[in-house]
Amino acid sequence: MRTEDLLAAIATGLWRWDSVSGAVSYDAEAARLVGLPAEAITLPEAAARACFHPADWLEVKAIVDLAVAEGTLAEARLRVVDEKGTVLRTVRTRSRPIARGGSEDGYYLLGTLQEVPDPLPGTSAAGPPVTGDWRRNREAFLLDAGRALAEAMSTAEVLRVAAGLSMPGFSPEGLAVFGVQGERISVIGHHGPRTGADHPFHDIALGTDYPAAEVVRTGRAVYLPTPEEYRGRFPAAWSLGRPRKRRSWAFLPLIVAGRTIGAWMAGFAHPVSFSPDERSVLTTIARMLAQALSRTALQETERELADGLQRSMLPASKPDIPGLTVAARYVPTGGGLQVGGDWYDVIGLPSGRTALVIGDVQGHDVHAAGIMGQLRIAVRAYASEGHHPDAVLSRASRFLAGLSAPDGADSPDSRYDPRFATCLYMEVDPVAGTLDIARAGHPDPAVRLADGTMMVRPTAGGLPLGIDPDTDYPTTRVVLEPGETLLMCTDGLIETGGHDLETGWDRIRKVFERPATLTNDSGTLPSDDLDSDDLEALADSLVQAVHGPPSHHTTGPLADRREDDIALLLIRREAEVCLVGPGSAPVRRTAVTVAQAEPERIAGTRQQLRDMLHDWADPDQVESAVLMLSEMVTNVLVHTDGDALLVAEVSGRHGARRLRLDVADSSDELPHRRRPGELASSGRGLLLLEMLADNWGVDPRGDGKCIWYELHEAAPDGAAPSSPPDGA
To answer: Is the pLDDT of residue 579 over 50?
Structure first.
């Protein structure tokens, strides 16, 4: 008797589905069961699909995919419906996937169809129980689990998410994730009793008779619904592990791109039959878990590589400069490989001085990091040869321009990716406290004065490196007084969080400025001298204000919250520890040179004076001081051939301070009063001094003259100006 006749005698039909063409073939009995004429027929997938309830077809598709992945039988129930959707009968199918003649691109699904003796009651197309609340809960659970695993940023986070999974209807009592290292597997994450380092299978050979090892070797899941089946299939593992508290186990492979990277174990304290729906949930979780572990492992490898690359390009140890304390930070925040073009360096010079460098190469990628490394080496080489700051930057600009120049530009395959870089180069004389600064398109440095006031120091500068090989970089000399701190930073510290230069400096000012003295029983002690590690704390505070949680409350006016790398250097000139009288305050002082060829720097001097007087009691006095400053510096540039040297000093107690401002030049011609007419454009400078200043004068010097004025701070309550300090 033929097989077909035998199966027909017991009302069982045969069918075959081709995964490549989608054709479905029925024998005569199978055709009868699905509501077609009782004869062998081959239908396209769409026609075969119309014979079944849509919900059941989707369910059987998922079960078949699971069986293909695991190499097991696919079992399901389907409702056969007519053209009106009325349920005719319920059939049960069992099928197995078979490879198509050695082809790796498809398979045949061979199966049987048999009518279920007890059909669902009624004639409506209501769904079976499996499509009810359990299925909806399963779908919601898988969505939540997929979202949580996708958001995990490290292997530890992925393992925490996996340990916290609560599956609908059959939550596991214990979980373990096994990783593969060569010919061994080990537990890399676990939840529940006896899955840690004390477990006998924490680190085992791949050839061990253990379910997880078999899963890794074969790439197929192992389901153990009862302890008896566990003991029968893996007697050695059962006798060694003695997992008596659990009643069912599922071991699933973690597969990424066809490669098994580990195994996942779910142990249950109650019996689980591992129905197709339950196996489908477990398989889906295993796939998501494998993808998440592979992604985070790659990200951690990239971060480790980037961190190692960046560390190799930064100074190996904290610099030791006599008379100065230095703190530095580098924080990659721009995403990607966490490596970019920001850098800082500390270079010992042949003269015995020290050079401090900070810079930023355009872009945030591996190319920018490579250019940064080459430029850093070039700057270090030029500095070590003993060149002055302006010459170092000029040579570095020519080097970068040559580095970015197209090679074989006539070739159609050549790629031209020019990059520029900003840089601030500073040569430090710690004995005299002088800083010779050359700047190439980089943000100006800021100085915190001895009393805690922050001032941005305008310095002369040129174009960023690499734009014009012949650019000159003038040098500006700044004196760092004892107890003062200077900040050099890249634009990431200023602009991260959607800030521009103005609002960015305002945010930094709130952290950079702080009380400069602490009071004790004997008087006041400069806090800068209390703890040498204070500068490190200040560096951390600056980074946290820009990149840490507080930064989310200080977003800038720009629409996007732009992130960028942060590099900063803090330099503090040490001062002797001394106790001063109660009520005393450090002197606040600044000095600026305005060259004949740079009249535009007058605006910068006005802003510096406003910064010095930010806490002055009377705003009208501040405006008067700025107006007199502008007149004095302008007169030097208009009526002499030399530069103007401005020195401003604030001294005294708060509320009774004195501002003295000197403007010196090299001309011997003394100013004299004039009586300008109503339409005259000049001649009012001395009249303004006489009207607005509390004291003013002109002092001849051997190499020119100095014109000065003084303002005495009005009392905070609006009373008459207090007496000038002693020695005024």
So the answer is: no
Q: Tokens representing 687?
A: 């009249």
Size of the chain, expressed as the number of residues it contains: 728
Q: What would the DSSP string read from start to end of 260-329? A: EEEEEEEEESS-----HHHHHHHHHHHHHHHHHHHHHHHHHHHHHHHHHHHHHTS-SS---BTTEEEEEE
Per-residue confidence (pLDDT) for residue 582, from 0 to 100? 46
Six token digits for residue 418: 């020019």
CA dihedral (29, 31, 35, 36) positive or negative: negative
pLDDT digits (tens, 9 = 90+) for 177-236: 888 888 888 888 777 655 444 455 677 888 888 899 999 998 889 999 998 899 899 888
Are the C-beta atoms of residues 539 and 328 closer than 8 Å to each other?
yes
- 414-423, 672-681, 688-697, range with the lowest pLDDT: 672-681
Which residues touch 223 (CB under 8 Å, ≥6 apart)?
A: 249, 250, 251, 274, 279
Mean pLDDT score, 357-362: 90
For residue 41, count other CB atoms closer than 10 A to its CB. Answer: 17
CA gap 300, 275 in Å, rounded: 37
Rounded CA-CA distance 353/530 in Å is 26
DSSP 606-630: HHHHHHHTTT-S-HHHHHHHHHHHH
8 A C-beta contact, residue 4 and residue 15? no
**Cβ atoms 381, 418 nearer than 8 A:** no
The single residue listed with the structure tokens 């079992």 is 75
The helix/strand count (H/E) of the chain reads as 18, 30
Whether residue 486 contacts residue 325, with contact meaning beta carbons closer than 8 Å, is answered with: no
CA distance 605 to 459: 11
Residue 118 in 3-state DSSP? coil
CA–CA separation, 318 and 329 (whole Å): 11
DSSP H helical ranges for 54-95: 54-70
CA neighbor of 473 nearest in space, from 483, 464, 482, 484: 464
